[in-house]
Amino acid sequence: VKFLDKRQNKESWRKCLPIYDELNCYSSLMEDTACANLKRVMVAECRKRYKILTEMALKSFGPVNWKNVNEDTTPGILENVRFLFRLSEPLCHGKPNLKLGLKYIFSHFELQFKFHFMRKVKTNDIKKPEWYLTKLLSWIREFKDKFRVHFGSLLENENEATVTALFVEQFCELAVMKLTEDIPKLDDGLFTHYIDEVIKFHRELKDHLPLSYIRSPILDLFTEEKTLNRWLQLETISSFKFLSNVEADENCYEERESGTGYPIPAMCVRVLTSVKAVGERVKVFPSLALNNSFYSLQCDLLKEFMVHLSDKLHRLDHKDVKFTLIVNSVVYILTILEEWSYDQHYIKVSKFEGDSAPFSHISESYQLLLQDVQDSLESSISSKVNSLLSGYYKTTWTLPNKLDTISPSCSAGLMELQQSLSCLSTSLAADTFLLVWSNLASSFQLNFTNKILLKSQFNLAGAQQFKSDMLAFCGIFYEYCSPSYFAKLNSDLEVLTLPCETARLWKGEGSSSLDNLADLLQERSIALPPSEVLKILILRSDI
Q1: DSSP character for 89?
Q2: Helix (H, G, I), strand (E, B), or coil: what is residue 69?
Q3: Which of 78, 213, 266, 511 could form a disulfide with 254 if both were Cys (CB 3.0 to 4.6 A apart)?
Q4: In 124-178, where do the E strands start and end?
């Protein structure tokens, strides 16, 4: 200590390094001593000498002007850096002081940064974080290769990726210093702006970092509990406010191409874009806990939007163009959620959350809504058509002659059915429309069979009239399916309209032996069980 006291001056301070190193060694050895006072004194003395030597070295060396770094000036700079590397931090004896050496190398940048962005000057504008972040990026681009060429030899035990990361980190520390000072002063609007600029800065920074590099001191600022909670609160308020006003735009129901062959409303595109942005913004953050917080917000937004869509669907008529657009929104959201379920980012976050798959519970809710809407749509169409067919279901089928057209009591109902399907076919998502028309076809086919075919008495003219009506019914669906879809009904109608003599013969054969009737059916290629054919023939009152 006396030696250090004598030589800590401008002329001989360099000679203090070996003695300081010895002092640091003894301090490190004191870690396990039982003498607490001795340990405390040694460590305090070591820290004191380290501070003095560091200040004297940096003051003596002066800042490195990177504009003048070349083959002639580099040797002297390297000598200074090596000295600082050997000046180990207290209780770190023998460990190179990379931090101090790099601080010296980058001292010029720190001075420039503080001069332009941490004094009362025009360039220090709290509303413009992009000014200093852009400056840092420009320094990185300009001097990255120069650092590797002239100072890479200092880090000979490190690979090139580590050297690059250390270089970039020095500029990140300047940003952290400035952000730490500014963030507490920001209003909500500026706070949001800072987040956007920092994320943008980090994404551009990734172009200069090795792929394996994950540390981000700048992003770490926004994972601190107080800052994170403020960010999440602002994001939540902003997102839900956007949702509540989603229909305020007069163009919210303007049709947009979804890329899947069916139109969706503009508001659906905007909501999904907003929800996606919430997740995309935080993907750059390595913290799963932070990402999980925003994943939960995404789920809450999708739930809220689902409630909104459900409310609208239950208040609109199915012929309203808004109705089909909203149904398409539900289908499209399910498609997008399936795409997101394969995103590795969401897979990691959902595992952290405990979900079986990304957005699985949200998808289930939207599936239930789609099924509910589909059932409601089919019920609405069926109810209206059946109301128009109420008289038709009571028709007497023993007629003097077959009409040249379909039955008058049937025409209004079939017209309503045709118009409903025609409207849906051009506006509803194809998969959803397929389910709707096929369920309606099956439902009405069953109605006509159970309420008329199997409960009425027919003469030949009445049977032919009923067949004419049913062919008109089937024809409505031939735009969406082949005639084979109604093969069973067509077979029933063929049997029902057999000429009287043929019908009488078949009825007699069937009454005596179903096997004989089966042979007759095979000859006519009618794919019906003999027992069912016999039931239909019994309905003929004229044989």
Answers
A1: P
A2: coil
A3: 266
A4: none
Give the phi and the psi of residue 458 in degrees, each rounded to 5. Answer: -120, 140
Q: Is the pLDDT of residue 12 over 80?
A: no
Determine contact, residues 87/58, Cβ cutoff 8 Å: no
Q: Which two tokens stand for residue 156?
A: 């000979």
Which residue has 């305090």 as its token pair? 44
Q: Could you count the other beta carbons within 10 Å of the beta carbon of residue 237? A: 11
CB 66 within 8 A of CB 108: yes
CA-closest candidate to residue 43, choices 58, 54, 29, 53: 29
Enter the DSSP assignment of 88. P
The conformational region for residue 94 under phi > 0 = left, psi -120 to 50 = alpha, else beta, is: left
Average of per-residue pLDDT across 370-383 = 94
pLDDT digits (tens, 9 = 90+) for 90-116: 888 778 777 888 888 888 899 999 999
- Amino acid in position 48: K
CA 425 to chain CA centroid, nearest Å = 29
SS3 call for 540: strand
- Dihedral of the alpha carbons of 122, 123, 127, 129, in degrees to the nearest 10: -170
**Confidence band of 430 (pLDDT split at 50, 70, 90):** very high
- pLDDT of 11: 59
How far, CA to CA in Å, does 514 sit from each of 509, 523, 540?
7, 14, 18
At how many degrees (to 10) do helices 530-538 and 514-523 cross?
A: 90
Eight-class DSSP state of 405:
S
Residue 132 pairs with which residues in a beta bridge?
Answer: none
pLDDT band for position 4 (cuts 50, 70, 90)? low
Please work out, in degrees rounded to the nearest 5, the angle formed at the alpha carbon of residue 101 by the alpha carbons of 96 and 106: 155
Evaluate whether 165 touches 210 at the Cβ level (below 8 Å). yes
- Angle in degrees, CA 536, 541, 543, rounded to 5: 85
Q: Which amino acid is at 489?
A: L
- Reported as a single tens digit per residue, the pLDDT across 446-463 is 999 999 999 999 999 999
Q: What share of the chain is helix, strand, coil (3-state, %, to 5)?
A: 75, 0, 25
Burial of 365 (0-12, 13-18, 19+ CB in 10 A): middle
Burial (0-12, 13-18, 19+ Cβ within 10 Å), 438: middle
pLDDT at residue 37 tops 70: yes
What is the C-alpha to C-alpha distance for residues 419 and 416, in angstroms, rounded to an integer?
5
Task: Report whether pLDDT(264) > 60.
Answer: yes
**Which two three-digit tokens encode residue 149?**
């060429």
Q: pLDDT digits over 210-227, tens only?
A: 555 556 788 888 888 899
Q: What pLDDT score does 123 carry?
A: 94
First to last CA, the chain: 129
Most confident of the following: 2-6, 62-66, 486-490:
486-490
Largest CA distance in the chain: 135
pLDDT at 145 over 70: yes
Return all residues near 419 (Cβ < 8 A) that are at least 6 apart. none
